[in-house]
Amino acid sequence: MYIVFLTYTRPMEEVEALLEPHVAWLNRYFTAGAFISAGRKDPRTGGMIMVKEMDRKQLDIILAEDPFQQVASYEVTKVNITRSANKFAALTGI
């Protein structure tokens, strides 16, 4: 799986202006089964998306569609989950 960290690079008013299309983009890929979880950083300097295992080129295509490309930078880390707490056991091997 991948963990994608977004860091805002533009003022918050520009981020807010793109929030609705960004959420629609998130919803599309949750529905498609590509995204596992997502949320805001605290303090609100960006966000995080957990993405199921896929070809990295496919992930790059998906990320390029995000409206937040205009207001954020992306750090993508591939993670191989080998242990999880019982409540998160379904994440092992994703």
Automatic annotation (TrEMBL):
Residues 1-79 form the YCII-related domain. Pfam families: YCII. InterPro entries: Dimeric_a/b-barrel (IPR011008), YCII (IPR005545). Belongs to the YciI family. This is YCII-related domain-containing protein. It comes from Erwinia sorbitola.
